[in-house]
Write a structure and sequence with these properties.
With 212 residues, the chain is an alpha+beta fold. It contains 7 helices and 4 strands; from the N terminus they run βαβββαααααα. A 4-stranded mixed β-sheet has the order 2-1-3-4, covered by helices on one side. It is globular, with a radius of gyration of 17 Å. 35% of the residues are buried. Bound molecules: glutathione.
Length: 212
C-alpha cells in the first residue's frame, strides 16, 4: 500500500491512525503543505489518497471503511491498546446515528481546515463574515457532539472511528492555533484519553526533524 499525505492533515492522520491500529505497513508519500494542482494524487486535489495494488481511493472516511472491511484480520497485529479498535465505521445497531456523528465531525473538520488555510492571507473570523460563520459552525458542531458522546467515547467499549475522527482535527486546531475549542467536559476528556494512545503518538502532526 502507498499513502499520499501531509503530516499536518487531520484527514490523513485519521487514516494513518487506522493503519497503525491495524498494524498495516505502507509506503509514505509525504509532502507537507498544499500539493501542486498540476500533479495531484487524485481528482479532488486533496490528501489522503491510498493506493492498494490497482485500487486508488480518496476521501478519508471511504479509505477507513475500505481498510476495516478489507483487512479485518490485521487487527490482532495492532499494539493491543485498550479499548480495541472498532471493527466497523458505525455500530450496526446505531448505523444512522453514528453516520450522522461522523458526518458532523467531517463538516466540523472541514471548517477547522478552512479557517487554518485562510489564516496566512489574513482572512480570519475577525475580518470575514464567512470565516466567522465557519468558526460558529465548529462551535455548533462541538456543542452537538458533546450531547452525543459518552464518558467512554462515542461507542462505549471501543476505540471508534468517531473517536479518531474527532481527535485529529481538534489536535490540529491546537497545533496550528486555529481557535480555542475546549470547554466541553466529555469531549475534553475523550481528547485527553486519545492523546496517549500509541497510534496517536506514532502519527505526530509535526514530526521531529532529522538532524542535518
Ligand atoms: N473530505 C476530504 C478532505 C481532505 C482535505 O481537505 N485534505 C486537505 C489536507 S487537510 C487537502 O489536501 N487540501 C488541499 C486543498 O485544499 O487544496 C477527506 O476526508 O479526505
Amino acid at each position: 500500500m502507498k499513502l499520499y499525505f501531509s503530516n499536518g492533515s487531520p484527514f490523513a492522520r485519521k487514516v494513518r491512525v487506522v493503519l497503525a491500529e491495524l498494524g498495516l505497513t505502507y509506503e509514505a508519500d509525504i509532502l507537507d503543505g498544499l500539493r501542486p494542482t498540476s500533479s495531484p494524487p487524485g481528482p479532488t486535489i486533496a490528501v489522503p489518497v491510498l493506493e492498494d495494488g490497482p485500487l486508488r481511493l480518496w476521501e478519508s472516511d471511504l479509505i477507513v471503511d475500505y481498510l476495516l472491511r478489507t483487512y479485518p484480520a490485521a487487527r490482532p497485529a495492532g499494539d493491543g491498546a485498550q479499548p480495541p479498535l472498532s471493527p466497523w465505521v458505525a455500530r450496526p445497531e446505531r448505523h444512522w446515528q453514528d453516520m450522522t456523528v461522523l458526518a458532523t465531525i467531517a463538516t466540523c473538520a472541514a471548517s477547522i481546515v478552512n479557517l487554518r488555510l485562510m489564516q496566512p492571507d489574513g482572512i480570519t473570523p475577525a475580518s470575514s463574515a464567512y470565516m466567522a460563520r465557519q468558526k460558529a459552525r465548529v462551535e455548533s458542531c462541538l456543542d452537538w457532539l458533546e450531547t452525543q458522546v459518552t464518558d467512554e467515547g462515542f461507542a462505549p467499549g471501543w476505540f471508534s472511528i468517531m473517536d479518531i475522527s474527532f481527535f485529529c482535527p481538534v489536535a490540529f486546531c491546537d497545533a496550528r492555533g486555529v481557535m480555542p475549542w475546549r470547554g466541553r467536559p466529555k469531549l475534553d476528556a475523550l481528547f485527553d484519553r486519545c492523546r496517549t494512545r500509541p497510534s496517536m503518538i506514532a502519527t505526530p502532526i509535526d514530526p521531529p526533524r532529522r538532524p542535518g
